[in-house]
Request: fold
Amino acid sequence: MLEIVLIRPGCTDYDLQERIQGNLDVPLNGQGMSEVQRVIEEVRGLGIEVVYAADCEPTMQAARCLADALDVKLKKLDRMENLNYGLWQGMLIEDVRLKQPKVYRQWQEHPENICPPEGEMLFSAVERVEAAMTKLLKRHKDGVIALVLREPMASLVRRFVNHDELGDLWKALEEHGRWQVLTVHPTLAHTA
Reply:
């Protein structure tokens, strides 16, 4: 049986400012590095064999620290870059809520139906997650691996593995420096 330790990297200055980061490369700040160190200590005994990360600054920073501390390989996850929020990137979440209340509410309730201005539809990110996870599940049938991903990509992986609801993606953006273990159901692993 395969277990996936899904890790959200620590926070960046954009997270503290409640800005939409999307696929912008904003490095971890001091608090974010502290969160990464805490996560490392919490997951140290889980038997992680390899660390995978999306190719962006905060996830790679966190993944390098984790892989070094656990003395395991670090591998880049292709096509798992974060959602492109287009013109929303760099904006305060509150500004989107105030200036575009209808779109903000729709993003909360049905994010799959909204495309941020000049951005990417969530469906495109879902397709990328499904392709990457299918490839990963073919490679790993059992053991323990770690995936380091920002939101909403982490929520999309969780939904792919657990088949549960996506949840509020605005709230999910606050989920930095946290982790959870996902157990891959054997039927999911066999269909990959």
Summary: The radius of gyration is 16 Å. Strands lie at 2-7, 50-54, 73-77, 143-148, 179-183. The longest strand covers residues 2-7.
